[in-house]
Design goal:
- The structure holds two protein chains of two kinds.
- By secondary structure, chain A is mostly helical.
- Chain A is about 70% helix and about 0% strand.
- Chain A has helices at about 1-10, 15-35, 40-50, 55-80, 90-100, 105-140, 140-155, 165-180, 205-225, 240-245, 250-265, 270-280, 295-310, 315-320, 325-335, 345-350, 350-380, 385-400, 410-425, 430-455, 465-485, 505-530, 535-560, 570-590, 590-605, 610-630, and strands at about 180, 190.
- The longest helix of chain A is centred in the N-terminal third of the chain and has 36 residues, at about 105-140.
- By secondary structure, chain B is of the alpha/beta class.
- Chain B folds into two domains: about 1-125 and about 280-335, Bordetella uptake gene, domain 1 (D-Maltodextrin-Binding Protein, domain 2, 3-Layer(aba) Sandwich); about 130-275, D-Maltodextrin-Binding Protein, domain 2.
- Chain B is built from 13 helices and twelve strands.
- In chain B, the strands form four sheets. A five-stranded mixed sheet of chain B has the order 2-1-3-12-4, with helices on both faces. A three-stranded antiparallel sheet of chain B has the order 8-5-9. Chain B has a two-stranded parallel sheet with strand order 6-7.
- In chain B, β6 (about 150-155), α5 and β7 (about 175-180) form a beta-alpha-beta unit.
- Chain B starts with a helix and ends in a 5-residue tail after the last helix.
- Classes of the chains: A mainly alpha, B alpha/beta.
- At the A-B interface, α3, α6, α15 and α20 of A face α1, α2, β2, α3 and β7 of B.
Chain lengths: ~650, ~350
C-alpha cells in the first residue's frame, strides 16, 4: 500500500501533471470566489480540456479544481457577504459580520486554515479508509440517512434566534420551498403551477444566492460607499492563527462531520456544513455572538464543507454513486478514461486511488497558501464604492443561476428569491433556518418514505438509528436536567441571527412578509388536498405549524404596524431595478438590459466619470458575454426582440 | 496509451488534418455539430455521448467538431423543449436522449412541447438492462422467480420515467413485486440492494457489467433476464450484451408455456424497445434532408467496423453496436406512436397502480 502511495506521488510529480493540477486549482479558485459558480462550473469548464491530456493529468486537473473551491469561496463570503457557494452560507453570516467590524483578516485566516484542515482530513480519510470505508457506507441504509437529516434539522433549531415565531416561520417557509417539484413517495408534482421549470424543484444554488447574495447586494448598493465603512485591514494574520489554534478541536470535529456527510450520497456539503455550524453553536458557551460575527461559526463550517467535497469521492470511487454534483462529473470523466469505479477499483487501480489522495492533499495546502497571498489585495476592493463591484457581481450571480437549466426561469427565480430574502432580512425573519429547511426537506421526505416502504416501522429499532438518535436525545435530556436544576435562570439565551433583533426589523416589511407567507401557506394547504396521501406528509410538516405562525405574525404585524416603508425606500428602488432587469432580459434578450444595468450602476450609483465607466463597463460586459459563451454556448434570447 | 491515441485521433480530426476517404467528401467540413443531452454531466447519457463523440468526429465526412452540451431540467423535458425551439434542420443539432424523454411524450404529459414522433432518427445506441435478484430470495434463475422465499422488493425512481419498462415486465410476467419508488437514481438503488434493503433490481448494461457482475461472481447477486432484443419486429431475441440470459419474452414462455400476448405485452414491447433496443437515440429536426440521414447511416456503419470502437465498446457494453437507417427509424417511430388502446392502458396502469396524475 505504501509502495503504491509512493508510486502515485512520483507519478503526480511529473511536471506536466503538476502543471495540470495547479491549472485546475487556479480555475477552481476563481470559480470558488464567483458567487453561484462553484465546483460544478469549474469542472465543467475544464472537462473539454482533459481529453487532450493523459488520464492522470486530466483527473489531477479536475481534482485540483474540486478541492480548492471551498477554500477560496471563503473570500467572497467574508468580504461580500454573498456565499461563494451554497455550502458556505454560514461563513457568509458569521465571517461577513466580522468583516464589517474590521476583523476580516481574522475571519479569513481561520477560514483558510479550517478549509485546509478539512481538506487534509478528507484526504487522510480517503487514504486510510478506502479499504474500510466500504462497510461504513453500506451500514448507512435509508433509515440511518433519515436520522442524519433529522439530526441536521435538530441542529438547525439552534439557529432560530430570539424571535421564536419568525424563526420557526422561516424554517417552515424553507421546508415549503423544498417540497416544490416532484414528490418522493408518489408521482405528484407539487406547487409547480403547470410550469415545466418547476418540475425539478428549486436549485440549491439559486435559493442560496437569492436569499443571501441578492439581498446583500441590494442593501450595499442602496447604502452607497464601500462594503466596509471601516478600513478592512487584511495584513495581520496572527490573531487568525491564534483563533484557529483555540478552535482546533472544533475544526477537527467539524471535519469529521463533513466526512460523514460526504459518505452519504446526495446529501452533500450544504447539509453537513449546517450540521457543523449547529454543532459549533451548541458547543459554544457564550452563544450571544452567533449571527453577529462568531469566529467559531466560520471555523466549523469551513472545516466541514472542504472535508465533505473530498469524502464525496468515497461513494463515488467505491460504489460508482457520486456523493455530490461535482463528484458526478468527476465520475463521468473517470468513465471516459476507461476507469470503472466500483468494488474492484482498489485492487485494480491502486495507483490511481493514491493519485487522487495526493492531488487533493496537495491542493488543499497550496490552495490555502495562495488564498493567504491574494486575500489582502482583494480586501482592498472593499474600500472602493460598492456599486463598482456590484455590476459584475450581480451579473455573475445571474450567470451562476443560469447554470441550473439555462432558461430565463433561472433569472426570474434568482430575483424572486432575492426579493424574498430581502423581505426576510428587513422583516426580521432569520434566513439560515429557511435555507436549512430547504436543504433538508428533500432528503428527509425521501428517506422517511423509503424506510417506511422497505422496513415498515421496524426501522425504528435498528442499532444505527438508535445510535444517531442518541445524538439528538442526549443533549435534549442534558438541557432538560440543567433546566430543572436552574429553573431557567435568565442569561441563557439562544444565539441571535444577524437580522433577528426586533428593533432592526422594518414593521411595514414584516407585515408584508407575514401576509405573503400567509397567502403561500394557505394556497399550499389548498393544493395539498389534491395530492396522493403519501405526498402530503412533508408539505403538512411545513404548513401545519407554518400557517398558524404566519397568521399570528400577520395579526401581530397589524397590531404593531407603523409606516416605515420610507426607511428602506432606497433599497426598495434597487430591488425594483433588479426585477425590472429580469423582466427586460426575458423580453428583449440579455445585451440591452445588461448594458443599461451596468450604466445605471456605474453612472447613477457609483457616480463614475463617463469615460472611465465606458471603459470599465465595456470590460465587464465583455467578460459577461465571454462567460456566457464559455459556460453555456448561448445567452437568453428575448421574447419580443429575438437577440441575446 | 490507447486513450492517448484516441485523443490524438480526435485532436487531428478537430484540426481538420485527417484525410479519411468518405463517400460524400467533406459534407460537414468546418461545421460544428451540437449534441444536446437533456441530463446532467455525470449521467449515463452524457457519458455515452462523450464516448461516441470522437468516433463521430473521425468518421463523419468532413470531420466536423462535435460539441456535447448538457441541458438538464424538468426530467429532460426542458432540454427537449429547447431542442424543439432551437434545432437547426441541417443535421447540426442532435437531441441525444433516452426513454425519459420519450415516455412523457407518449403519455401526453403536461409541459411537453417537443414533437418527438416527427423527429428524424439519426442513430441509436442500445442500452439494455438486466434484472437480478438477491440470493436471499432463494431464486436461482428466471424459472423459479415466482417461488421466492421472501417478498420481492424493487427500488425505482419514478413510475413514468425509466422505470416504466421494468414495471411493465412485472405485468407481463404476472409477478407480485412490491415497488418502492422515490430513489435519486439507479446508483442509490444499487447501493440499497447491496445493503440488503431491496432484493430485486434492474440495471442498465454498462453498470451491470462493471458493478453487478462482481457481485454475481461473489455470489451476492443472481442474474435473471434481460429486456431482450428486436428480432423480426418482436422483442424476443436474446440481448447480444448478455446472451446467456433469457429475454422477458422467453421467461414468459418458460413460466406459462405460451408466447406473451395481449395489451400488457404490447405495452411492454413498445416502451421497452424505446428504452432498451433503441435506448439512447440521436434525434434530428423534422425537416432534416434525407441526405444527412443517409450520411449518418453510413457513418454508423463505419464506426461499427472501426476496430478501436469495437475494442472500447467491448469493454464498456460487451460490444454493443450502433443502429441507424430506415429500419431503426421505423421501429423508433412505431414505438413513439402507440395505439390508443396501449396509451389508455399505460395511463390507467400508471394512475391507478402508481398514482400518476395526468
Amino acid at each position: 500500500m505504501i509502495d503504491n502511495a509512493l508510486v502515485a506521488l512520483d507519478a503526480l510529480f511529473d511536471p506536466m501533471r503538476l502543471a495540470a493540477l495547479f491549472a485546475g486549482m487556479m480555475v477552481g479558485m476563481v470559480f470558488g470566489m464567483l458567487p453561484g459558480l462553484g465546483g460544478v462550473a469549474a469542472v465543467s469548464i475544464l472537462l473539454p480540456f482533459i481529453y487532450y491530456m493523459d488520464d492522470y493529468s486530466g483527473l489531477a486537473m479536475l481534482l485540483g479544481a474540486v478541492s480548492v473551491v471551498y477554500t477560496s469561496d471563503t473570500i467572497t463570503s467574508v468580504l461580500l457577504g454573498a456565499p461563494g457557494s451554497p455550502a458556505s452560507a454560514p461563513t457568509a453570516i458569521e465571517g461577513h459580520a466580522l468583516a464589517k467590524q474590521g476583523q476580516a483578516a481574522r475571519a479569513l485566516g481561520v477560514g483558510f486554515l479550517a478549509s485546509m484542515v478539512g481538506g487534509l482530513v478528507g484526504a487522510a480519510v480517503l487514504f486510510f479508509a478506502i479499504p474500510i470505508a466500504g462497510p461504513i457506507v453500506l451500514l448507512l441504509s435509508t433509515p440511518e440517512l433519515f436520522m442524519f437529516s433529522l439530526v441536521g434539522l435538530f441542529f438547525a433549531s439552534s439557529m432560530i434566534g430570539k424571535d421564536l415565531a419568525k424563526g420557526l416561520g422561516a424554517a417552515c417557509l424553507g421546508l415549503l420551498l423544498g417540497v416544490v417539484g416532484p414528490a418522493q413517495a408518489a408521482a405528484d408534482f407539487r406547487f409547480t403551477f403547470g410550469q415545466v421549470y418547476l418540475l425539478d424543484g428549486f436549485s440549491l444554488t439559486i435559493v442560496a444566492l437569492g436569499l443571501f447574495g441578492v439581498a446583500e447586494v441590494i442593501s450595499m448598493l442602496a447604502a452607497g460607499g464601500g462594503i466596509s465603512h471601516q478600513r478592512m485591514e487584511v495584513a495581520q494574520w496572527g490573531e487568525g492563527f491564534r483563533d484557529f489554534w483555540r478552535s482546533k478541536w472544533l475544526v477537527l470535529r467539524a471535519s469529521f462531520i463533513g466526512v460523514l456527510g460526504g459518505f452519504v450520497p446526495a446529501v452533500g456539503a450544504s447539509a453537513s456544513t449546517w450540521v457543523a455550524y449547529g454543532h459549533a453553536i451548541r458547543s459554544t458557551k457564550d452563544k450571544s455572538k452567533f449571527g453577529k460575527g462568531e469566529i467559531r461559526g466560520v471555523a466549523a463550517s469551513e472545516g466541514a464543507n472542504n472535508a465533505t467535497v473530498i469524502s464525496d469521492l468515497v461513494p463515488t470511487l467505491l460504489f460508482s454513486v457520486p456523493g455530490g454534483p461535482a463528484a458526478a462529473i468527476f465520475l463521468g470523466a473517470l468513465f471516459s478514461f476507461g476507469y470503472y469505479p466500483g468494488p474492484r477499483m482498489i485492487t485494480q487501480n491502486p495507483d490511481l486511488m493514491f493519485l487522487i489522495v495526493w492531488s487533493v492533499a496537495l491542493t488543499s495546502v497550496v490552495g490555502a497558501g495562495l488564498c493567504f497571498l491574494i486575500a489582502p489585495t482583494l480586501a482592498k476592493l472593499t474600500r472602493i464604492p460598492f456599486a463598482i463591484i456590484a455590476a459584475p457581481l450581480v451579473l455573475i450571480m445571474v450567470i451562476g443561476a443560469y447554470q441550473s437549466t439555462s432558461t430565463i426561469g433561472d433569472v426570474f427565480m434568482l430575483f424572486s428569491l432575492g426579493a424574498l430574502g430581502w423581505l426576510m432580512k428587513h422583516g426580521g425573519w432569520p434566513r439560515a433556518p429557511a435555507l436549512v429547511g430547504f436543504v433538508l426537506s428533500g432528503p428527509m421526505e425521501q428517506y422517511f418514505w423509503l424506510s417506511n416502504q422497505i422496513h415498515g416501522w421496524s426501522w425504528l429499532g435498528r442499532p444505527g438509528v438508535l445510535l444517531i438518535a442518541s445524538v439528538i436525545v442526549i443533549p435534549l435530556l442534558l438541557s432538560l436536567v440543567r433546566w430543572l436544576r436552574t429553573r431557567h435562570t435568565p442569561g441563557e439565551e439562544g444565539p441571535g441571527d444577524e437580522d433577528a433583533p426586533p428593533p432592526d426589523s422594518n414593521r411595514s416589511i414584516a407585515l408584508v412578509l407575514a401576509a405573503l407567507a400567509l397567502v403561500m401557506f394557505a394556497y399550499a394547504l389548498w393544493e395539498t388536498f389534491t395530492f396522493n396521501p403519501t405526498s402530503r406528509l412533508m408539505p403538512a410538516l411545513a404548513i401545519v405549524p407554518g400557517l398558524p405562525l404566519a397568521l399570528w405574525l400577520f395579526v401581530r404585524g397589524i397590531r404593531e404596524y407603523e409606516n416605515e416603508f420610507a426607511r428602506d425606500g432606497g433599497e426598495l428602488s434597487v430591488l425594483v431595478v433588479l426585477v425590472t432587469y429580469a423582466v427586460a432580459v426575458w423580453a428583449i434578450g440579455l445585451s440591452i438590459p445588461t448594458v443599461a444595468l451596468i450604466a445605471w450602476m456605474l453612472l447613477a450609483r457609483a457616480k463614475m466619470r463617463l469615460w472611465t465607466s465606458l471603459v470599465y463597463g465595456a470590460v465587464v460586459f465583455g467578460i459577461v458575454r465571454l462567460l456566457f459563451d464559455v459556460l453555456r454556448g448561448d445567452a437568453p434570447v428575448g421574447v419580443f426582440l429575438p437577440i441575446s | 496509451m490507447r486513450k492517448f491515441m484516441t485523443t490524438t485521433a480526435a485532436l487531428t480530426a478537430v484540426m481538420g488534418l485527417a484525410t479519411a476517404a468518405q463517400a460524400q467528401d467533406g459534407y460537414f467540413a468546418g461545421e460544428t455539430i451540437d449534441v444536446i443531452v437533456p441530463f446532467g454531466q455525470g449521467g449515463a447519457t452524457f457519458v455515452s455521448a462523450k464516448f461516441l463523440e470522437p468516433y463521430f468526429e473521425k468518421h463523419l465526412p468532413g470531420n466536423p467538431e462535435i460539441n456535447v452540451i448538457d441541458r438538464p431540467g424538468g426530467g429532460s423535458i426542458l432540454g427537449a423543449n429547447w431542442f424543439e425551439q432551437n434545432a437547426e434542420s441541417d443535421g447540426t443539432t442532435i437531441l441525444f436522449t433516452t426513454s425519459s424523454t420519450a415516455n412523457p411524450f407518449v403519455l401526453g404529459q403536461e409541459g411537453v412541447e417537443y414533437r418527438l414522433a416527427d423527429y428524424r432518427v439519426a442513430y441509436s445506441h442500445p442500452f439494455s438492462a438486466v434484472a437480478y435478484t438477491s440470493p436471499s430470495t432463494g431464486v436461482t434463475s428466471a424459472e423459479n422467480i415466482r417461488e421466492a422465499d421472501e417478498p420481492l422488493i424493487y427500488g425505482g425512481i419514478a413510475a413514468a420515467a425509466s422505470d416504466l419498462p421494468g414495471l411493465l415486465s412485472f405485468e407481463v410476467l404476472d409477478l407480485d413485486v412490491r415497488t418502492v419508488l422515490g430513489f435519486n437514481g439507479r446508483g442509490p438503488v444499487r447501493l440499497a440492494f447491496e445493503q440488503g434493503e431491496l432484493n430485486f433490481d434492474y440495471q442498465f448494461t454498462p453498470v451491470y457489467l462493471t458493478q453487478v457482475v462482481p457481485s454475481v461472481e461473489a455470489g451476492t447477486a443472481v442474474p435473471l433476464w434481460t429486456g431482450g432484443a428486436m428480432e423480426d419486429g418482436v422483442l424476443k431475441g436474446r440481448d447480444p450484451i448478455a446472451p446467456e440470459l433469457p429475454s422477458v419474452y422467453e421467461v414468459h414462455e418458460m413460466l406459462t408455456g405460451e408466447a406473451p400476448s395481449g395489451i400488457e405485452w404490447e405495452a411492454f414491447q413498445g416502451v421497452a424497445s424505446v428504452t432498451y433496443a433503441y435506448g439512447l437515440t440521436g434525434y434530428m429536426h423534422p425537416d432534416t434532408p434525407q441526405e444527412v440521414l443517409d450520411i449518418f447511416a453510413e457513418t454508423v456503419a463505419a464506426i461499427n467496423s472501426d476496430p478501436e470502437f469495437q475494442a472500447e465498446s467491448q469493454e464498456v457494453t460487451n460490444g454493443a453496436r450502433l443502429n441507424a437507417g430506415p429500419d431503426t427509424e421505423a421501429a423508433v417511430k412505431a414505438a413513439l406512436m402507440p395505439s390508443a388502446e396501449v396509451r389508455d392502458y399505460l395511463r390507467n396502469l400508471l394512475s391507478e397502480k402508481y398514482g400518476v396524475n395526468f
